[in-house]
Amino acid sequence: MFPAGIYFCFKKLSDGNIFAILYGITSIYFAGVMVRLMLVLAPIACVLSAIAVSETLKTYMKYIKSRPSDRAGPPQIKGQSEIGYIMVGGISLLLVLYVFHCTWVTSEAYSSPSIVLAARGGDGG
Fold first, then answer.
1. What is the structure's pLDDT at 51?
2. Domains in the chain: how many in total?
3. Per the domain annotation, does 107 fall within a domain?
4. Radius of gyration over alpha carbons of the chain, in Å?
5. Residue 115: pLDDT band by 50, 70, 90 thresholds?
6. CB atoms inside a 10 Å sphere around CB 108
7. d(CA 3, CA 104)
8. What's the rounded Cα separation, in Å, for the pair 17 and 11?
9. Is the pLDDT confidence value at 103 over 70?
10. Is residue 36 predicted with pLDDT exceeding 60?
């Protein structure tokens, strides 16, 4: 979602968005040059990814059918409500699966001491 966040920052240029773009581009370059600088990339990657998720959800939440008393949204075209539900549900599912993946990776990384390296054989032992 990092590149999508940069795209959304370019769509609405402001001082904060220009800073995020410059910080993101330079940190991804330096993280590519030296792996230890991945720690510099992590915060801005999270921020730009959050911008991308937020803008995408904001776009598709408009198309979810509103209550009859609330007609402030855009006019509904047949099928837009279903696309809105699919996109919002899909992004929500991806975010939940990402949390489970991060929990699993963390449990694998911190489950054994770093002095002893864990290895698995071809038979799973």
1. 95
2. 2
3. yes
4. 20
5. low
6. 10
7. 25
8. 9
9. yes
10. yes
Of residues 81, 107, 93, 101, the one with CA closest to residue 53: 93
Judgement on whether residues 67 and 51 belong to the same structural domain of the protein: no
Task: Kindly state whether residues 14 and 45 are assigned to the same domain.
Answer: yes
Per-residue confidence at 73, pLDDT binned at 50, 70, 90? low
Q: Are 23 and 1 in contact (CB under 8 A)?
A: no
Cβ 44 vs Cβ 27: under 8 Å: yes
Please, are residues 49 and 2 in contact by the beta-carbon 8 Å criterion? yes
Percent of the chain with pLDDT over 70: 83
Q: Whole domain around residue 18: which residue ranges?
A: 1-55
Dihedral sign computed on CA atoms, order 111, 35, 30, 101: negative
113 torsion bin: left (phi>0), alpha (psi -120 to 50), beta (else):
beta
